[in-house]
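Researcher: I'd like a candidate sequence for this fold, 252 residues long. If you have to choose between options at a position, lean toward the conservative one.
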């Protein structure tokens, strides 16, 4: 960290992280962050202000390597980088006269290059106090992208290969928004009053997905991360001509 004349501030930090959820050779990574600050209230044009008591503008950016999003079926997962085989069901032949009790089946293919998901974040903050600390505020604008989320890319392989498809770092989600903290402070005699509010606005966006749906409205990319998908009933068909003009009913 560096402080120049109590006006300009800079900070660089980093973490060297390790995860046993990843294959040998990819289990460690360096996560750097940097931030810059400018204390405007120390500048000559605000040093004697009767309105501004404190005013600081800062910005930060970082790339954080994380294994918190290495998941399978919405559950924390290990060994996504391995060839996984299991015991399968029995099968018969000769009209059921002959058979075997056990089979060996594949669950997933190996992914020796599987790595961390990367949280790439940039934010800017303004904080200040005014009128002898009567009003204090802090507001931050932020944008974050989770890049390289682990997924199986089924669209890249024929369906009979589905049990051999490896996990790769492909999916990405984005989030952006702002938050605001505003307080009004007053001292009357020996009693101090503070009335404040906190506001947060955030929106999410599926930036990238491996998907190959029949109709484009089913695609997740471009929609909120927490979007809910389902079927909407259009009612009953009235005649054959209406059936012919609508999409083919494939779900049941």
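Model: Candidate sequence:
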């Amino acid at each position: 960290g560096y402080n120049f004349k109590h006006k300009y501030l800079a900070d660089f930090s980093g973490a060297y992280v390790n995860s046993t959820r990843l294959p040998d050779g990819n289990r460690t990574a360096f996560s750097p962050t940097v931030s810059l600050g400018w204390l405007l209230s120390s500048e000559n044009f605000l040093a004697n202000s009767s309105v501004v008591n404190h005013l600081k503008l800062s910005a930060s950016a970082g790339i954080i390597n994380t294994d918190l999003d290495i998941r399978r079926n919405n559950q924390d997962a290990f060994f996504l980088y391995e060839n996984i085989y299991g015991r399968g069901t029995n099968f018969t032949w000769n009209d059921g006269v002959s058979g075997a009790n056990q089979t060996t089946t594949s669950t997933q293919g190996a992914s020796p290059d599987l790595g961390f998901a990367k949280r790439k974040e940039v934010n800017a903050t303004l904080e200040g106090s005014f009128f002898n600390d009567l009003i204090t505020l802090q507001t931050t604008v932020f944008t974050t992208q989770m890049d390289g989320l682990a997924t199986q890319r089924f669209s890249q392989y024929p369906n009979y290969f589905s049990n051999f498809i490896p996990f790769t770092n492909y999916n990405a989600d984005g989030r952006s928004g702002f938050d605001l903290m505003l307080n009004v402070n007053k001292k009357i005699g020996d009693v101090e009053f503070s009335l404040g509010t906190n506001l947060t606005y955030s929106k999410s966006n599926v930036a990238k997905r491996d998907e190959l749906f029949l109709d484009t409205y089913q695609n997740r990319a471009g929609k909120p991360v927490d979007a809910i998908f389902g079927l909407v009933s259009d009612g009953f068909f009235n005649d054959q001509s209406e059936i012919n003009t609508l999409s083919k009913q494939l779900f049941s």
